[in-house]
Design brief:
The protein is an alpha/beta fold. The two termini are 14 Å apart. The structure holds inosinic acid.
C-alpha cells in the first residue's frame, strides 16, 4: 500500500488538482503545499458549497488532517490570515493543525508593487502574472535577501530588516518605475494581526514530515500551477517562478525521492492556460466558446478568461517523463459532452521547416497535427463507474493510455467531491515508480 502520493498538474495549471487532492485525502493524514504561493487557486465543492483555496493545502478540509505549508512556498502572511478567517467563517477550524515552514520566504507589499509595476512597464510584452508578488518574492530568495517566516518571530529585528529592504525597493519603484514609495512602518503595522495568528504555526516542517514518514502516516503532496509553468521546464519566460514539476517537491519539502510512492498527473480532458505564452492547440472558434462556457474557464485567482484548446498529447508525454508520473487523472471529461468530434494533438508541424515533430522542444513555431475521435451526446457528468461511460468516452480514455503508455487511474466527471471514477486509488496500489 502506498503512503506518500504526489499530485501535480501536467499542463498549464487549473487542471482541477484541488478537487482530486480533496477526494483522495484520508483522515489522520498530512496534506502538503510545497511550491508557488497564493497565485494558485484550488476550487473545491463540498456539499454544494464552493470553496477556493489559494495557499492552504486542500486536504485540510478533511477531519484530523494536518496541513503543511513547506519551505518551497512563498507565503504572504496577510493572504494566509485572510484564508484562515475565510475558512473559519465557513466553520472549518484549522488553526491548530496547520504548520508553516520557518524557512519559507515571505511575500510582502513591495513584492506585489514590483510585480504590478513590472507588468505595466512591459506593456504588450507583459507575462500576464497574477500580480500577487510571486516572481519578486522568489527573486529575493535566490538573491539571499528574503525575509522569511522565521523573521516574523522578532518584531524588533523584523522592523530593522524591513526598513532596509523597503529602502532598496523604493529606489526601484520611484526612480525606475515612477511609482509611489512605500512605508515600511505601514507594512509592519498591517502585518501584526497575521503575525499574531500564525506565530504558533511556525515549525521545522521538514522535521514534521520525516516524523510523519517514520510513523507510517499517509501524506498527500499538492502541486500548484502546472508543469509548463515551471521556471525550468515550462514555456519560458511565460512561466511562474517556482518549480511546479516534481523537483519542486523535493527541494520544497526536504523529503527525498525515495519516499514518494506514487505520482499522479492531473490532466484536463482538453487544455487551458491563463496569461500569455505559447499554446499550440489553442482554439478561437465555437469549441473555445463551448469549453469556456461549459467548463467555466475563468481563473479562480484573477477571474481572467482562460485560453482553451484540444488535449495536447505531445506536451502530455513530455510532462509524464519530466515528472516520473505513475498514473493520470483526467478531469472535466463531462465538458466534452455534446461535441460531435474530439481531437487529440499527436504531433507538431514546424511552420518554418514543415518538419513533423513529436517532441516539445520549441512549441512556439508549430502547428498541431490532430487525431480525430467521435464525440458523444449523452451526459457523463456525475458518472462514477467506467462502465456507465458511453463507448466513445471510454475509447477516448483508452486512446490517451495508448499514446502516453501510463494508466488513467482516475476520471473526474463533475465539480463535486464525489463526481469521480476511481479506477485505481493511488494509495491502494503497489508502489511502482522508484
Ligand atoms: P505568477 O505566478 O503570478 O508570476 O504568473 C506567471 C504565470 O503563471 C501567468 O501566466 C499566470 O497566469 C500563471 N499562473 C500562476 N499561477 C497559476 C495557477 O494557479 N493556475 C494557472 N496559471 C497560473
Amino acid at each position: 500500500m502506498n503512503k506518500n502520493v504526489a499530485i501535480l498538474g501536467t499542463q498549464w495549471g487549473d487542471e482541477g488538482k484541488g478537487k482530486i487532492v480533496d477526494s483522495l485525502t484520508l483522515e489522520n493524514s498530512y496534506a502538503v503545499r510545497y511550491q508557488g504561493g497564493h497565485n494558485a487557486g484550488h476550487t473545491l465543492v463540498i456539499n454544494g458549497e464552493k470553496i477556493v483555496l489559494h495557499l492552504i493545502p486542500s486536504g485540510i478540509l478533511h477531519k484530523n488532517v494536518t496541513g503543511i505549508i513547506s519551505n518551497g512556498v512563498v507565503i504572504s502572511p496577510i493572504a494566509l490570515y485572510n484564508e484562515i478567517k475565510m475558512l473559519e467563517n465557513k466553520k472549518f477550524f484549522i488553526k491548530d493543525r496547520l504548520f508553516i515552514s520557518h524557512s519559507a520566504p515571505l511575500i510582502l507589499q513591495y513584492h506585489v508593487e514590483m510585480d504590478i509595476a513590472r507588468e505595466k512597464k512591459l506593456g504588450i510584452n507583459a507575462l500576464g502574472t497574477t500580480g500577487r508578488g510571486i516572481g519578486p518574492a522568489y527573486e529575493d530568495k535566490i538573491a539571499r535577501r528574503a525575509l522569511r517566516v522565521e523573521d516574523l518571530k522578532d518584531e524588533k529585528k523584523l522592523s530593522i530588516r524591513l526598513e532596509k529592504i523597503v529602502d532598496y525597493y523604493n529606489h526601484q519603484l520611484v526612480s525606475f518605475y515612477k511609482q509611489k514609495s512605500i512605508d515600511y512602518k505601514i507594512i509592519l503595522k498591517n502585518l501584526l494581526p497575521s503575525i499574531d495568528l500564525i506565530q504558533g504555526m511556525i515549525k521545522d516542517t521538514t522535521f514534521i514530515l520525516h516524523n510523519a514518514i517514520f510513523h507510517n502516516k499517509k501524506i498527500i503532496f499538492e502541486g500548484a500551477q502546472g508543469s509548463f509553468l515551471d521556471i525550468d521546464h515550462g514555456t519560458y519566460p511565460y512561466v511562474t517562478s517556482s518549480n511546479s514539476t516534481i523537483g519542486g517537491l523535493i527541494t520544497g519539502t526536504g523529503v527525498g525521492p525515495k519516499y514518494l510512492d506514487y505520482i499522479l498527473g492531473v490532466t484536463k480532458a482538453y487544455t487551458t492556460r491563463v496569461g500569455y505564452g505559447p499554446f499550440p492547440t489553442e482554439l478561437f472558434d465555437d469549441i473555445d466558446k463551448h469549453f469556456s462556457h461549459k467548463g467555466h474557464e475563468f481563473g479562480s485567482t484573477t477571474g481572467r478568461k482562460r485560453r482553451t484548446g484540444w488535449l495536447d498529447a505531445v506536451a502530455l508525454c513530455r510532462s509524464i517523463k519530466i515528472n516520473s508520473l505513475s498514473g493520470l487523472c483526467i478531469t472535466k471529461l463531462d465538458v466534452l459532452d455534446g461535441l460531435k468530434e474530439i481531437k487529440i494533438c499527436i504531433a507538431y508541424k514546424n511552420i518554418k521547416t514543415l518538419e513533423i515533430n513529436t517532441s516539445l522542444n520549441d512549441c512556439k513555431n508549430v502547428e498541431p497535427i490532430y487525431e480525430i475521435h467521435p464525440g458523444w451526446v449523452v451526459k457523463t457528468s456525475g458518472i462514477r463507474k467506467m462502465t456507465d461511460l458511453p463507448a466513445e468516452a471510454r475509447n477516448y480514455i483508452n486512446r490517451i493510455e495508448e499514446i502516453t503508455h501510463i494508466p488513467v487511474d482516475m476520471i473526474s466527471t463533475g465539480p463535486d467531491r464525489s463526481d469521480i471514477i476511481l479506477i485505481r486509488n493511488p494509495f491502494f496500489i503497489k508502489k511502482q515508480i522508484i
